[in-house]
Fold this protein.
Amino acid sequence: MRTLTDHIGRSFKVLRVSLLDRCNFACTYCVCEDGIPAATPRPVVLSSDELVDLIGRLHHLLHLQTIRLTGGEPLLYPDLPKLIKGIRQLGIRDIKMTTNGFLLAKKVASLQEAGLRSINVSLDALSESSFYRVTKRAGLKQVVEGIIAAQETGLEVKINTVIMAGENDQEILPLLNFAFRHGIKIRFLELMGMGHLFGDTDSKFFPRQAILERISSVYKIDEQAKKYGDTATYWNTSCGHSFGIIANESHPFCADCNRLRLDAQGNIYGCLSSNTPIPLREINSQKGLEASLYAALGQKQMQFSGSEISMLTIGG
């Protein structure tokens, strides 16, 4: 079968699925107020059966290699094990998830049993005060317990840390050392101009070079070639550890992006910078679906330009 590609050869092989647009944290890089309490009742727009059907139709055309489940906070989605099993039954084995980790310790065994292979956990600080300043919640202990529990089940575990000047940049080395002690990969992320931060990241922006300078003050590091389609560039240390940096602003990686996004309402986006959702739920024909996918390919950009859409809506 032919592959859907754009004018520079980019295709979709990774589907990021935002399961719902609510979260039990209120991270300052994601929302601008105290967030939406997790107890606030909101209907799940797409059931696990509906999601599996949509993913299956996309997989038929795209031959997807990886599904990444995101949110909001995906661990709040009620039928998560059933959804993962359904995706596996489509023939997609590389199923990953990104989570804040607060509920992870209680749920990770059932997710691993259902077929989850890899998990990224957001951890932006190891001190209680910095953790609360970023997330607006108390819960550091639960997140760390979730990371260790996920590792003990045999899942591949990575830590994601968004670095903000004056908020948690002092946490870089403690987090790096924590990851090294536990044999976990850690990626540091530059702040992205999404949602309420669109066009307004300068005051808190902490660039890749500053992160590297902080780390190289303690460790001798060696940059590795970035793999095609990866968001992170990795460095090895002389003591045998590695870490990554996702530098969407200072070192864009859009040229080899292979990701498609499905939001909680059944809309697709070909680019994180796009403000234009492409409705998918009501499209029943293969011809119509293919036209929507080409429209999504047309959204792809050569460099991230930010978006007014929040990460809470489109998925981190």
